[in-house]
Design brief:
The chain has 104 residues and is mainly α. It has five helices and two strands. α2 crosses α3. It binds a DNA duplex (13 and 13 nucleotides) through α2, α3 and β2.
DNA sequence: GTCATGACGGATC
DNA sequence: GGATCCGCCATGA
């Protein structure tokens, strides 16, 4: 609609249930731009406070850069606290907690 | 309207 | 699984 892709991205990210995570590509797909996962990342960087951007990860199951949430450890702590299973290698168990944004 | 940029994804090695 | 290269698209200046 008139809302920019960024607005739609914020809306979807805000709907991510606790204990689950989604990928930039999935969000991009939900906003109608399956080829624009970069926009999602960009939107996260510009994201206002209150947005659970820590629940958004890349498809590899790895978290965003260390300095994005006050530390890689901090983001992992938040996710684990919500019930997101982590693997021994420090990555998220995508097959178990992946959530597909059906909002759009 | 054009240029440069970006919290990525996929393919390939 | 990890690292590297290329490509995609919207936003901001």
């Amino acid at each position: 609609m008139d809302k920019s892709v960024f607005e739609q991205i914020y809306d979807i990210v805000a709907r991510i249930p606790e204990g689950q995570v989604t990928t930039y590509g999935a969000i991009a797909l939900s906003v109608g731009r399956p080829r624009a996962p970069r926009m999602v990342g960009n939107a996260m960087h510009r994201a206002p406070e209150g947005l659970p951007c820590h629940r958004v990860v890349n498809k590899t199951g790895a978290l965003a850069h260390e300095d994005a949430f006050g530390g890689e450890f901090f983001q992992r702590y938040l996710l684990e606290n919500e019930g997101v299973p982590f693997l021994e290698n420090g990555r998220i168990d995508m097959r178990a907690c992946f959530w597909f944004p059906d909002g759009a």
